[in-house]
Amino acid sequence: MALKFLACTVRPLNPSFADLILELWYKLECIDQAIIYEERSGVNLGNFMALEEQITLPELKRWKKIRLQDYENLKSRKKARITVVFVSGGPGVGKGTQCARVAKEFDFCHISVGDLLREEAKSPTSPYRDFIPESIQKSVLLPA
Fold this sequence. Notes:
Elements: H1 2-10, H2 15-41, H3 58-79, H4 95-106, H5 113-122, H6 131-137
Helix pairs in contact: 1-2, 2-3, 5-6
């Protein structure tokens, strides 16, 4: 919105520069939206990255560089093989013990939902502070 405001401000004095600001901003916005959409949907929108060559306004170069780095990070994450293992079971059956062993042996990261919930319940500002202990007691992680 700031660049649209700037274009409106500049237009009476220099209409062609105002048009250039908007044209370059829209190209950057296309890149930005393509990155967001590809991240959420998985659809390859790399062809939008060709627009970056047309973004020449010095004031937009920093933003362009940041967004292109975000896109490179997204591509790296998509190439990485990620294994996710969910372990479920009743209270006290050894989920934590087994998961700790598997995490150590296979260099996995062990994230315990119970540990996360207990940590959240300790927070005095958490809106779920009163709900979590009852939920854990009843073995209900999420209300249906």
